[in-house]
Structures are given as structure tokens and as C-alpha cells.
Amino acid sequence: MPAAARNNVHVIGSGSTAMMFAHGFGCDQNMWRLVAPAFQDQFRVVLFDHVGAGGSDLSAYAPQKYSTLAGYADDVVEIGNELDLKGAVFVGHSVSAMIGLLASLKAPEMFRSLIMVGPSPRYINDEDYVGGFEEKQIAELLNFLAENHMGWSAAMAPAIIGNPDRPELGEELTNSFCRTDPDIAKEFARVTFSSDNRNDLSKVQIPTLILQCSEDIVAPLAVGEYIHGQMPNSRLVVLRATGHCPNLSAPAEVIAAMRGFV
Hints:
By secondary structure, this protein is α/β, with parallel strands linked by helices. The chain is 40% helix and 17% strand.
């Protein structure tokens, strides 16, 4: 099956350069609806769903392939090859920031720059490294998700969004989580929260913009600063926005920061 069908690829805009948007865990390409259109006059905007999310082909999910983030990065490269992407801009939210990083290493000609929104190379604290979670907390989180997908979604989404004065945002993320196939969500969560891509950061030489929210329980400020310190050609911008999904809560600020980079 072509990647365009498997990953529910949509292309808008007609710029000579492509800009590919990749969504985070429990989300789909709809999470970019407030940001992506702002770039369609200047770029050929590419939107897609990871296998298991949104309008992707669920039958394409292969546990072995997607047991690491590399499997998702392979899909990005496959989509890029089908669309003949060269010198494109990759925009990845949350776990997709690392998926894009891996894809850029697999296909060096495909992307000229990376934009990472709320990235984290490792979510678990490790000696001097602050990831934001203890290993026990991640184990409990994954067990809760495995036992009660709907309950986990309702409890976690508002905390992840981090804008208690705007409950509609938490509700949207809850609904997005609930639409995700529970078995695939469980595995994708395990892959996401147990990944460790710290050693890959220094391998990336292309310009990278790190967009870090001022308060984010999923990827605290220390994580953004760590990534910036490890990536030789990176720029860190700390947004006024709070929470883990500024593409929903503060799209204008995200767009402005992106425009200053591209």
C-alpha cells in the first residue's frame, strides 16, 4: 500500500519547498489545523497521520515495526520519497520531534531544517538528566492506560493541555485520545515514554528550532535547554504559552516563532 494511503496524507499549498507536519501521541493531523494553513501560501504543506491515528490504515500496524520510533521515522521517509521531498522543513510535535530527527538522519537530503514543538529525547529522569518523570511514574502511567484507556484519556488530557481556564482544549484532547485505537495507543505510549534519543541529538547538523512552553508537565524547560545544548545548530525559543500543545492553545505564537525561523 502506498504511504500516502496508509498514512492518510494530505497536501495543501503550492510553494516550491515542502513543510511536513507530524502530530504527537494520541493526536492526528487535525491538531495542526490552526497552524498549518498559515504556511500554505509559502510552502507545499504535507499533513499525515501516524499508523494507528486519525484516518490511517489500522491494518498496517505491525507491532514489530512500530516497537521503536524508528518504524515511525521509516514511514516519514517513505512519505517523503513518494512526494519527492528534498530540502523540506519538518515540524514535529512532542514525540514526533524525535521521529523527525531520526527521519532526517535516515534521509539527509530530505529535510533542510527541523522545528520541534515540545520535544523530549527522554521522558525519564536519569542521574543528572531531568526528563520530568521517575521510572515508577511512567510505569504507573502505562499501566493505567492499559487498564482503562477512556479513564486515562479523561484524567491525563486536561493535565497535558495545561490550560485549566480553557476546558474546551482539554476536552478536545480527551476526545482525540479516545478516538485512538486502545491497543495501538498502549503500544505507542510505551514506545514514546520509554524511548531514549539523547545520543542522536548531536548527530543532527541541520538548523533546528526548539519551541518550548514556559510551563509543560510533559517536557519541562530543563528538557528544552538540554536539547539546545546537545544540538550544535539549534535555536531555543521559550514561548509564553503553557501546557504541552501550543499548536492548539497558542497557535499565533507558534506561527510567529516559526516564521522567524523559516
